[in-house]
Amino acid sequence: MNEIILSKVSYAQSTEFICYDIGNMTVLRNIVNYGLAMKSRMLSTSTIEQELRHLVELENYLRARKLKIDSLNDENLALYRDNLLKKTISARSHRGVEEKSKITVNAKLRRIYHWLHWLQSSGMCRSNLIGPRGSVRSEVRQSSNRSLQTSSWKAANSYSTPLCFRTSFQNSSHVTPRQLPTERTVDDLHAYFFASPSSNYLVYRNSLFIDIASRVGLRRGSINSLNTNQFLAEDIANSTDEFWITPSKQKKNYSNSFPIPKDLAIQISSFIENQRAELIIKKRIKKTDHKGRIFLSERSGKPLTDRAMTQLIAKAMRSLGFEKGTSIHSFRGKFTSDAVDKEVETRLSAGMDTSSMSIAPAVAMRLGHKNPFQFLSYASAAQSKKARLERQEQESELSRLRSELNKLRRIALLPTPKTSKK
């Protein structure tokens, strides 16, 4: 039985987290105060809860071995990491995939490193617990990040995490599938949904999931949070080529606005007024149940869960031959690649700079990220792809010319046909 538990307490439109030590009947201030510190940084409740549960898991592991945070060192932290990897690999969500499991474990370890640095800087643990010469080795680095809003540089501390596993996806929080969806994938998924024995409502709803993810690049939570009052026909008619919306649910509690192609916005509005409206009448769904959300569960009439969306798209992707685990988020990768390609082409036609440093900010803004330099690799990859395609086109043209030349040479070497005498 776990000795440490985390409870969520809501009051006066606010949510707090309390961490209890059941054995000693005490509150763990080192975790509770860390939660308050994260809340002061305006992090979402779900993010704070996730972070704190990682720490509770570590605390319970240490308690089971009669250890405390102050006794933590590289050796027992490495043992915890290996124990965590075994549990993660065996979890159903990771399907025994070691690479994917290592990425999950690394994410948890980084949270622990950050927490230990915070504890030490706050005086809530012994000195020299963590640091270049600490029991847990970790260096404090100063990195510069440019703000997209102010274009100014600001310094931020980052920490080395020596015990993290080396993986093929060092700079990504998601496992990149071996296959990225293409426009052909979008067409195939539409065909899959329309050929399925589902209701008219499900066919159009599921197809819209793919179109929004592919053409706008929104995360599943943002797609699922879209509301009917954001797609009023009159507002869309008065817009230009793009219709701007602000999803109510975004990563890190951002409030970014995103452009939706006008034709897609019209499709969404039409879905609301037709298929969705028919479902509400047929099922007699109350407003208190659907809460104005666009995408509903056909069975319950309540807003569809993020998990349900992931599962239905993953099933469709597997039917097309994609590997397990490939779902709605993979279309964000497609959107990113398409956005970089489009930005490169626009800049080339205008005679502007096409370096990765100039492309990354524009793409990051489209994706709702504050740090543009996360996408330098995408920009570089797109440029490499463009150069490769140009090279292949040149090689193809050269091969055609050589073939033509060889043909002319063979003709030139043929004997002159004799003319018959009359």
Mean pLDDT: 83
Coarse morphology: globular
Structural class: mainly alpha
Strand order, largest beta sheet: 1-2-3
Which runs of at least 5 residues are low in confidence (pLDDT < 50)? 143-156, 170-177
Radius of gyration: 28 Å
Strand elements, count: 9
Distance between the termini: 113 Å
Largest sheet: 3 strands, antiparallel
Strand content: 5-15%
Q: Helices and strands, in N-to-C order?
A: EEEHHHHEEEEHHHHEEHHHHHH
The count of helical stretches stands at 14
The proportion of residues forming helix, as a percent range, comes to 40-55%
SSE layout:
Elements: E1 4-11, E2 14-21, E3 26-27, H1 29-40, H2 45-64, H3 74-90, H4 98-121, E4 130-131, E5 136-137, E6 140-146, E7 153-159, H5 183-195, H6 200-216, H7 220-224, H8 233-237, E8 242-245, E9 258-261, H9 262-283, H10 287-290, H11 306-319, H12 330-349, H13 356-367, H14 376-413
Parallel strand pairs: 4-5
Antiparallel strand pairs: 1-2, 2-3, 6-7, 8-9
Helix pairs in contact: 1-2, 2-4, 3-4, 5-6, 6-9, 6-12, 12-13, 12-14, 13-14
Describe this structure as you would to a colleague:
With 422 residues, the chain is mainly alpha-helical. 53% of the residues lie in helices and 10% in strands. It is built from 14 helices and nine strands. It has a three-stranded antiparallel beta sheet. A two-stranded parallel sheet has the order 4-5. Strand 6 (140-146) and strand 7 (153-159) form a beta hairpin. The N and C termini lie far apart (113 Å).
